[in-house]
Amino acid sequence: MLKAVILIGGPQKGTRFRPLSFEVPKPLFPVAGVPMLQHHIEACAKVPNMKEILLIGFYQPNEELTRFLFNAQQEFKISIRYLQEYSALGTGGGIYHFRDQIVSGSPEAFFVLNADVSSAFPLTEMLSFQKEHGEPNSFVILGTTANRKQSMNYGCIVENEDTHEVLHYVEKPSTFVSDIINCGVYLFNPDIFQHIGSIFQKNQQDMLLEEPTNGWHRAEAIRLEQDIFTALAGQGKLYVYKTLRFWSQIKSAGSAIYASRLYLNQYHKTHPERLASNKEGGPKISGNVYIHPTANIDPTAMLGPNVSIGTGVTIGAGVRVRESIILHGANLQDHCCVLNSIVGWDSTIGKWARVEGTPSDPNPNDPFAKIDSETLFRDGKLTPSITILGCNVSIPSEVIILNSIVLPHKDLNRSFKNQIIL
Amino acid sequence: MKALILVGGYGTRLRPLTLSVPKPLVDFCNKPILLHQVEALVKAGVDHVVLAVSYMSELLEREMRVQEQRLGIRISLSHETEPLGTAGPLALARELLDVDNEPFFVLNSDVICDFPFKDLMQFHRNHGQEGTIVVTRVEEPSKYGVVVFEADTGRIHRFVEKPQVFVSNKINSGIYIFNPSMLSRIQLRPTSIEKEIFPVMAEEGQLYTMELQGFWMDIGQPKDFLTGMCMYLQSLRQQAPERLHTGPGFLGNVLVDPTAQIGDNCTIGPNVTIGAGVVVEDGVRIKRCTVMKGARVRSHSWLESCIVGWSSSVGQWVRMENVTVLGEDVIVNDELYLNGANVLPHKSINESVPEPRIIM
What we know:
Strand content of chain B: 25-35%
Largest sheet of chain B: 7 strands, mixed
CATH architecture of the largest domain in chain B: Alpha-Beta Complex
Low-confidence stretches of chain A: none
CATH superfamily of the largest domain in chain B: Spore Coat Polysaccharide Biosynthesis Protein SpsA, Chain A
Number of strands of chain B: 31
Mean pLDDT of chain A: 90
Number of domains of chain B: 2
CATH superfamily of the largest domain in chain A: Spore Coat Polysaccharide Biosynthesis Protein SpsA, Chain A
Distance between the termini of chain A: 50 Å
Largest sheet of chain A: 9 strands, mixed
Structural class of chain B: alpha/beta
Distance between the termini of chain B: 44 Å
Radius of gyration of chain B: 21 Å
Strand order of the largest sheet of chain B: 5-4-1-6-11-8-12
Shape of chain B: elongated
Number of helices of chain A: 9
Helix content of chain A: 10-25%
Oligomer: heterodimer
Number of strands of chain A: 34
């Protein structure tokens, strides 16, 4: 049997996802109409012989997470549990801490997935690859090809081109090492805990030698990437399975719009029922659009491509929405225009207002380009990016909000451009 | 009676509109700028209008032949081969102006107001001296040359260029009436009437002022063109309110040509002029704009403080603001944002212009 672990992080992480992560844990932020994590769970649940999915993170148990877990168990008919770390233990430390939970029932292998990626998650292919390359008990990293410049923002993998063994692993190098990058999706077997365990023991010994600061020892985080893969490379234990299917990180809010586009495109195969189509008496749909059934949309509105409309959203006459995520309860009044933006929960956009951002999409002419892990400021200026309205923001009629981030519960009274509005 | 209108050169300040037609023929509130002046002159009894132009335009000549017929007057073009300033054109046209002993009007072609030609004539005859300047009151006199004059009689004492301390808030409005005798003061060479002729006339006690009642605007550049439009429409509201469009979806002063079509659920106004054959589709919001003949504004767009040139087309969900000026036959594609764009004729715009600039 198989298991899967999804690393969901905690509230101190995902700051680049503010102000949206104030309202909802980032892994539950809707991407292509469903919580980010649901794409992971769905991919795991499809793998034959999958018995259990464990979420590891350091969020306090909360109602939203509990409700999500309950609904997901119902929908996917599989055991899904949340295991809370007592502190941020790192990508390796977390699974090591809960190793008994993972190995109980004796799975022969388990997947580990980072929550902040969007991917086609070729898990079954990883399993077949593991069996075919002929090295039993080896571990597999999902890899993909990046361009030379961007590869240095990721974990870089040098492989033996014949066997696909990982010969060298380095996290975010400062010079070019390889254009094969780590996708944050792994296939392990319980042997991995010996390797993490030896690092854990070494950290413990180091800590005993060290003077405790403020009278207590802090838990040393163990990172799979720097601490484990770097050591395992070249040992005949670690392999890379390269995928050509879609993959992107979801670090900033801007990348959520891009990730939505990737998943909406995948819906043609996996969930055609989730894609809106042009119907008599319905709004005009262009490209891939997800509309929650409870949304109320005027037939003269025009939506798409790449638009996700959440529960209870109201969209008035002659509204235009493109490349955007509209979160639940938002109200888009007549003739307003929303482009490259995320509109927060219960926000209101007045008549003829224009809410517009600048897309941060990867270069469409480079097949290996990834979304840039953009910095908020460059040379002291706010980098033009998507516009984000936090929860319960009110935009008056006829103004323009361009390349701005509006924090929750603000009533704006004029136009803003290239600003963060506290 | 005769009048000389100082048309001058290419009207570069009103580009890109003047790249398509000579400035006097640019539509202001659905009528060529020049006709506002000529019609007012005709009403005051003028039967011969001389246009002082420094370039040749077949279009202008042809249009003037049409207007001669329509108004039953004579219109001459006095063509400068070199720029003669604001006074030289009077010398050049002397033979046309100095045919009888009647006073003649002179005006700058950029000026829009409630032209007071009859009152001016009366006032001029009453004081009996060589010339009268119409003055208008401004809020910030330090930006202009002001006129200092005797309050009771209107006799001018002096002119002060950009005064640093307050001496007067009245400025030369570019509208004058002169006796033919004053022509002898001007040589046929480049001369400024304001700097070289008026001070001498004032010194000799030959120059008077009459204060303009109502609005006044120099509409020589797009920003002021729009301000002048607001003033003109307000004046229409007072003098001929039946010419303004009212009804659901119309706010404030809006002038709509009867051949224009306005869609459903639009909100138009205040201060909008819509020209002949214009099509405004459904759900459009327009305020403080001029939309010229044959233009189309597609559904759900939002326009404020713009001039949409002849036969241009503005796409759906476009936002245009901040004195965006589209020349003739410009196409703005759907969903774009134009902030202070100045678009030359026959361009197709495919990307937003978030900061003011010229689109060649």
